Amino acid sequence: MSDHPITFSFGENWMDYLGSVRPESIEAAASDIAEWLGRDYVRGKTAVDIGCGSGIHSFCLHSMGARRLVSLDIDQASVDATIDFWRRAGEPGNWVVMRGSVLDEQFTRGLGKFDIVYAWGVLHHTGAMWDAVRAAADLVGPGGRLWMSLYTAGPNYETHLKLKQRYNASSRLGKKLMVWREIVRIMKHRRRQGKNPFTWNERCVRGMNVYHDLVDWLGGLPYEVAHPEEVVSRCAELGLAKVRVSVAGEGACSVYLFTRNA
C-alpha cells in the first residue's frame, strides 16, 4: 500500500456523524439488532463490538441489556466517538471502550469469549480479512454467535479499489468534489425513479445516513471482498454453523450470522 497512502479516518467520519444522530437513528440501529438476534436475545449476554466506529450499535447493545460489553477499534477517533455514547449511557462499569486491533492476538486473547461477536463492515478493512475473520471467530464462546458483514465480491473489484485509492490520494478539495460527484449521481437516479432528488440524504437502515455511508465507501482502505459461499465454507472450518445469510450485490455488504455449538 506504499504507493497508495491511506489518508481517510473512519473515526473522523463517524465523529462528524455524531452531530446528526437523532433518536430515530438509535431506534433504527436497535431494530436491526432485534431483527437479526431477537428483541430479547441480548439481555444478560456478553458482547464485543469489533470496529465500533460511531458507537451507536455498542450503545444499543448496552441499552438492550448486555451483561458485559467490550467496544474496540484501532482508530482513536472511533474510540472517542464510542466513548461519547458511553458517557450518554451514564459511564456504566459493565461497558468497556478500548483501542486495539482484532489482528493483535495477544490483545484479543485477553478479552475472553463472548456470547455475541459483532463485526459490521470492518474486517474487510484490516488488510488481512481472513485472518480477521478467524480472530473474530475465536472470540465466540460455546453457544455464542458471530454477526458480521463483508463486502461482496464481483467483477468490478479493481474499479472500486482504484476509486478508493484515488480518493485517498486526493487533496481535501479533491475529496469533496468526488463526494459531490457521487451525490449528484444519487440525485439523478432518484429523479429517474420519480423521487425527490433533494431528499437524497434520507436515513438508511441501521441508523446511518447516506452522506456518511458514502464517505465511508469512498475512503475505505484497505479494501477486500468475499464470495458468500466462501465465507460460509471458511466459517464452517472454524467451527461455526450458518444461522442466516443476507446476500447483497457487489459494492454492498452481505450479512452473516453464525453460531458455535455449545
Quick summary:
By secondary structure, the protein is of the alpha/beta class. The protein is built from ten helices and seven strands.
**Unreliable runs:** none
- Return the CATH topology of the largest domain: Rossmann fold
Q: What percentage of residues falls in helices of 4 or more residues?
A: 40-55%
The CATH homologous superfamily of the largest domain is named: Vaccinia Virus protein VP39
- The neighbouring-strand order within the major sheet is 3-2-1-4-5-7-6
The CATH architecture category of the largest domain equals: 3-Layer(aba) Sandwich
Number of strands: 7
| Largest sheet descriptor | 7 strands, mixed
Structural class: alpha/beta
Tell me the β content: 15-25%
Terminal Cα span: 41 Å
Tell me the number of helical segments per DSSP (H or I, 4 or more residues long). Answer: 10
Question: Shape, please?
Answer: globular
Please state the average pLDDT score. 92
